[in-house]
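Q: Given only this backbone (355 positions), what sequence would you predict?
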């Protein structure tokens, strides 16, 4: 079943029979084609992909699951979509309320002269379940990311700046076959590792922990991995903190299986950190979905209402961050199965010490 068919099947259960897809990741999910500009209209019996002259040739070559039509100044998106709606008799249309701004909503409503109904999590929910082919692509992306990390690992020293480390990773991502990074690489050292999303600076890598959070984008699919190293010999508490994070991650991973409440996975990992006395220093969730976006459904946190479905790909990334001192995060990516999960990250997790 194609993703267009999956969307139609979901449409049949809604109060509207047509949806307007404007979000780039959702358009990629539905058609397999990515561009900066485009709109996909899906009805009960047709799918039409609209784009302008910049992308029309590429869209015609890549999109086989929908009619491809070019928009122009004289025949814009709104006019062509409105014509289809009028011919088909649709008075309501679903829209992506989680990605459309209020201004865009008002604009579409005015141009199409119909009622727009939020589709809530319909598309992102469908995207959370990966096919076998999807998983193959994600694994290929993960292997590129890991190869690049291993190459750069040999270069890490206190003579290298944080920015140079991040730049070296990006260079190797591209050399090894990635289309791009999936997010801005986090490469921070020393006290800055207490910042979960610290920004690399033009300063030499310092002694202490070194956090490297990295990912690639390959054929539209994203990866997300974190490893924490130590520059110089760690003291006993540093070893204890690292070991606590690793045990917490392993506890969460053991809990993962289809049908479990996501917050229960978070709870299993959080309990390990709390028992070690570091509960106040674990401020984010255990993980999140990874796919066509580096952060997507399901959410795996203590406030999540999601149930993990078979086929989901999620991160496993507990951490401890002690302000002004240091932080540790270890992150893998998991494929959720009926009876457990497959860890698709192959990098070792023993603390690497560079002296």
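A: Predicted residues:
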């Amino acid at each position: 079943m194609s993703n267009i068919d999956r969307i139609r099947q979901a449409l049949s259960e809604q109060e509207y029979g047509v949806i307007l897809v404007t979000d780039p990741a959702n358009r990629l999910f539905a058609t397999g084609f990515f561009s900066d500009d485009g709109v996909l209209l899906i009805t009960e019996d047709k799918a039409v992909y609209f784009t302008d002259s910049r992308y029309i040739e590429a869209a015609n070559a890549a999109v086989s699951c929908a009619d491809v039509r070019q928009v122009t100044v004289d025949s814009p998106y709104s006019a062509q979509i409105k014509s289809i709606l009028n011919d088909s008799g649709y008075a309501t249309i679903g829209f992506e309320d989680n990605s459309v701004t209020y201004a865009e909503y008002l604009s579409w409503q005015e141009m199409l002269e119909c009622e727009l109904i939020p589709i809530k999590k319909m598309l992102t929910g469908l995207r959370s379940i990966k096919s076998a082919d999807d998983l193959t692509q994600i694994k290929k992306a993960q292997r590129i990311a890991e190869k690049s990390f291993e190459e750069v690992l040999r270069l890490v020293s206190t003579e290298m700046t944080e920015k140079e480390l991040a730049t070296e990773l990006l260079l190797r991502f591209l050399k090894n076959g990635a289309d791009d990074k999936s997010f801005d690489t986090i490469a921070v050292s020393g006290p800055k590792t207490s910042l979960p999303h610290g920004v690399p600076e033009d300063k030499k890598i310092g002694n202490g922990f070194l956090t490297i959070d990295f990912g690639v984008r390959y054929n539209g699919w994203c990866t997300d991995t974190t490893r924490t190293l130590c520059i110089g010999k760690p003291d006993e508490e540093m070893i204890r903190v690292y070991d606590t994070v690793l045990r917490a991650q392993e506890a969460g991973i053991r809990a993962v299986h289809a049908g479990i409440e996501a917050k229960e996975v978070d709870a299993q990992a959080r309990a390990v950190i709390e028992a070690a006395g570091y509960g106040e220093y674990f401020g984010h969730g255990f993980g999140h979905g990874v796919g066509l976006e580096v952060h997507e459904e399901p959410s795996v946190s203590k406030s999540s209402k999601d149930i993990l479905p078979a086929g989901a790909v999620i991160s496993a990334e507990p951490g401890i961050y002690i302000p002004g001192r240091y932080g540790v995060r270890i992150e893998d990516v998991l494929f959720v199965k009926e009876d457990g999960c497959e860890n698709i990250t192959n990098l070792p997790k023993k603390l690497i010490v560079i002296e």
